[in-house]
Specification:
By secondary structure, this protein is mostly helical. It folds into 4 domains: 6-95 and 111-198, no CATH class; 221-301, no CATH class; 305-336; 402-543, no CATH class. 66% of the residues lie in helices and 4% in strands. It is built from 23 helices and 4 strands. A hairpin with a 2-residue loop joins strand 1 and strand 2 (460-463). Helix 2 (19-41) crosses helix 5 and helix 9 packs across helix 10 (161-181). It starts with 5 loop residues before the first helix and ends with a helix.
C-alpha cells in the first residue's frame, strides 16, 4: 500500500482535524526540522524548542497552506525554510553570544577544497540554500536531507525520474557556486557525500510526541484568548514545556475531547473557555517565577566545570571532523589505498569508471554527439553509477546512452533559459531563428550543436531527425526533443523486436546505415515486428 503524501496528510488535518495525520507528518520530518534548527543555534535544547515552533506554525497555517500544495507535494522544503526563518529571528533577538561563537568558528583555517569541513559548511549551508529557487531547494532537501531516491523526488515534484535527476544535479551545482562565494570550494560529488552524511541528525527521544501534543493544543486554542499567551510560551525550558504539556493534557485535553463529541452543548463550551483563561493566568505566573530561577542558574553554570568539560568535548569533536575531512581528501588524491576505507573505495571505483568511459569516447568519436560540451562532472558520475561494472560492450552502450540523454537534457535547459532571456529583452516577443537566440545563451554554443535543431514555430525549438536511425551495434534509436518557454519534452523510441530485421538489412546492404524505417519493410517477418515497425514509422514521421 502506497503511503499518503505530505500534502494529503496536511489536507486531512486541515479539513477534518485528523490528529493522526498531523502526527504522521511530525514523525516523518522531526529529524529534518530538528537538524535544520540545530545547524543554526548550536544547542540541542533550543533546537528542540525551535522545532516545536515550526510544527505549531504548520498546524495553525494548515488550512491556507494545504490549498496551495499539489496532490503529491512534500513539506520537507517548506519545513526547512520555516526552521531557518524562526532560527534567524531567535538568533538575532536572544542569542548574540551564539552568533559570535559561530563567527569565530568561521575564522578557522580552511580545509581541503575537495571535502568541505562540516563545521564551516554548517554555518553557511542554509544561507546559501536560501538563494536557490524553491523548486531547486525542495529537490536538494528531498534527495540529500531526506535521503529519498530519485523516483520519490520526481513523484513529489511531478516530474519523471530522469528530469528529477537533472534537477538535483543542477541544483547541487548552483549550491556549490553559492558556497564558493562564501569561501568554501568543493566538488559536486564531495558536496553530495558530505550532505548525505551530516545534514540530518536524530532529534531527542520523545520530541515528535511533544510536538504533536503542543500543535494539537495550539490549533484547538487558536480562536480563544489564550492563543497569544500559548504562542509566547513556546520558548520555555524543557522542564516548563513538560509541565505545560502535563497540565494542559489533564485540564484541557479532556475538555476539548468532550467538547468535540458534544459541540452542540453551548454551556460546556463556555465553561471550558473560562477554565482555559484561568489556567493561562496561573501558568503565566509560574512561568515568570521559573524564568527568574533559570536566569540565575544559567549565570552560575557559566562558570562551572561542566561548561569547561563541554567546551573541551566540542573542540575534540571539531578536531576529529577536521581529521576525517583531511583523510577523505587524501584518499581521493590517491595517497592511501582505496581498500582502507569502504567509502573511499567506492568513490575511487566511480572515478576509475568515469576515466574508462571518457577514454572509450575519445577512442570512438562516433559515440560523441555535439551536445557533449554541456556535460558536467556529475553527469559522467551519474552515467557510470547506472552500471555495476564497465567491462562489456553492453555496459559501455548503457553508460553512453545515459550520457547522450544527459547532454541533450542539459542543452534543452540552456535553450529554455535562452528563450526566457530573449523574451524578457524583447518585450515578450519570441525568436523564430536560432541566430536570434545565439546571443542569449549563458555560455557559447558551437554551431555543430545548433545544426541539429530548428524552430517549428516562433518560441518552439525542436530537434531535427537524425541522419542515421541505427547505432554502430545495429540497434534502432530515435530521439525527439521540443523546448518552449513552458517546458521541455524529450521522447525516445527504440524497438528491440526490430533488431533481427535491422541485422538482416545491414547484411544485405554491406553494413549500410538505416536512414528511413520504411527500408525495413522487406525484412520484417512476424506480426510483432510489423506492429513495432509501424510505431517507429509514425514516431519518425512526427519528428520530421
Amino acid at each position: 500500500m502506497q503511503l499518503k503524501s505530505d500534502a494529503q496528510l496536511l489536507r486531512e488535518y486541515a479539513e477534518h482535524g485528523t490528529e493522526a495525520a498531523f502526527t504522521e507528518i511530525v514523525t516523518r520530518h522531526t529529524n529534518l526540522v530538528y537538524s535544520a534548527a540545530l545547524r543554526q543555534v548550536d544547542s540541542p535544547d533550543i533546537a528542540a524548542e525551535l522545532a516545536q515552533c515550526v510544527f505549531i506554525d504548520l498546524a495553525q497555517g494548515a488550512r491556507s497552506l494545504s490549498r496551495r500544495l499539489a496532490e503529491n507535494a512534500s513539506l520537507a522544503g517548506w519545513l526547512c525554510r520555516s526552521a531557518r526563518n524562526v532560527s534567524l529571528n531567535l538568533r538575532r533577538d536572544e542569542f548574540r553570544r551564539h552568533s559570535r561563537e559561530r563567527l569565530a568558528m568561521e575564522d578557522l583555517n580552511p580545509l581541503s577544497e575537495t571535502a568541505p569541513d562540516w563545521e564551516r559548511l554548517r554555518a553557511v549551508l542554509d544561507a546559501a540554500m536560501s538563494e536557490l529557487d524553491e523548486c531547486d531547494y525542495d529537490a536538494l532537501v528531498m534527495r540529500f536531507f531526506r535521503n529519498q531516491d530519485l523516483r520519490s523526488v520526481g513523484r513529489a515534484l511531478g516530474v519523471s525520474d530522469d528530469t528529477a535527476q537533472k534537477r538535483v544535479s543542477r541544483a547541487l551545482d548552483k549550491l556549490r557556486d553559492h558556497l564558493n562565494r562564501r569561501g568554501i570550494t568543493t566538488t559536486a560529488a564531495a558536496l553530495s557525500i558530505v550532505l548525505s552524511a551530516h545534514a540530518v541528525q536524530a532529534a531527542p527521544v520523545g520530541l515528535a510526541v511533544s510536538i504533536s501534543t503542543a500543535a494539537a493544543l495550539a490549533r484547538a486554542a487558536v480562536n480563544t484568548s489564550t492563543a497569544i499567551a500559548f504562542t509566547k510560551n513556546i520558548a520555555m525550558t524543557t522542564l516548563q514545556k513538560a509541565l505545560l504539556a502535563t497540565t494542559l493534557a489533564a485540564a484541557v485535553g479532556t475538555g476539548i475531547y468532550e467538547a468535540r463529541r458534544a459541540s452542540h452543548l453551548q454551556e460546556q463550551t463556555i465553561a471550558l473557555r473560562l477554565q482555559e483563561d484561568a489556567l493561562a493566568a496561573q501558568l503565566q505566573q509560574e512561568r515568570d517565577a521559573a524564568s527568574n530561577q533559570l536566569a540565575a542558574a544559567r549565570q552560575q553554570s557559566g562558570r562551572s566545570k561542566s561548561d569547561l568539560s563541554e567546551l573541551l568535548k566540542l573542540r575534540a569533536e571539531v578536531g576529529k571532523l577536521r581529521g576525517d575531512a583531511r583523510e577523505l581528501a587524501r584518499l581521493k588524491a590517491g595517497a592511501a589505498s582505496p581498500a582502507d576505507d569502504p567509502t573511499a573505495s567506492e568513490l575511487s571505483s566511480w572515478l576509475s569508471r568515469v576515466k574508462k568511459l571518457k577514454d572509450r569516447v575519445d577512442q570512438s568519436p562516433v559515440q560523441r554527439i555535439p551536445e557533449f560540451q554541456f556535460l558536467t562532472d556529475q553527469d559522467w558520475l551519474d552515467a557510470v553509477r547506472q552500471t555495476k561494472q564497465l567491462e562489456t560492450d553492453a555496459d559501455f552502450a548503457q553508460a553512453l546512452s545515459a550520457l547522450r540523454s544527459s547532454a541533450r537534457s542539459e542543452f534543452a535547459s540552456a535553450v529554455k533559459d535562452a528563450l526566457a532571456s530573449y523574451a524578457q529583452a524583447n518585450n515578450g516577443q519570441l525568436p523564430a531563428d536560432l541566430s536570434q537566440l545565439q546571443p542569449y545563451f549563458a555560455s557559447g554554443v558551437d554551431d555543430s550543436v545548433l545544426q541539429g535543431y530548428q524552430f517549428a514555430q516562433p518560441g518552439t525549438v525542436t530537434s531535427k531527425p537524425p541522419d542515421s536511425l541505427v547505432d554502430q551495434d545495429g540497434n534502432f534509436y530515435a530521439t525527439r526533443m521540443q523546448v518552449t518557454l513552458n517546458g521541455i519534452s524529450i521522447s525516445t523510441e527504440g524497438e528491440d523486436s526490430l533488431h533481427q530485421a535491422i541485422q538482416a538489412f545491414m547484411a544485405a546492404n554491406n553494413g549500410a546505415s538505416l536512414t528511413d524505417p520504411s527500408q525495413l519493410l522487406p525484412y520484417v517477418q512476424t506480426p510483432a515486428e510489423k506492429e513495432a515497425l509501424q510505431k517507429v514509422i509514425q514516431f519518425t514521421t512526427a519528428a520530421r
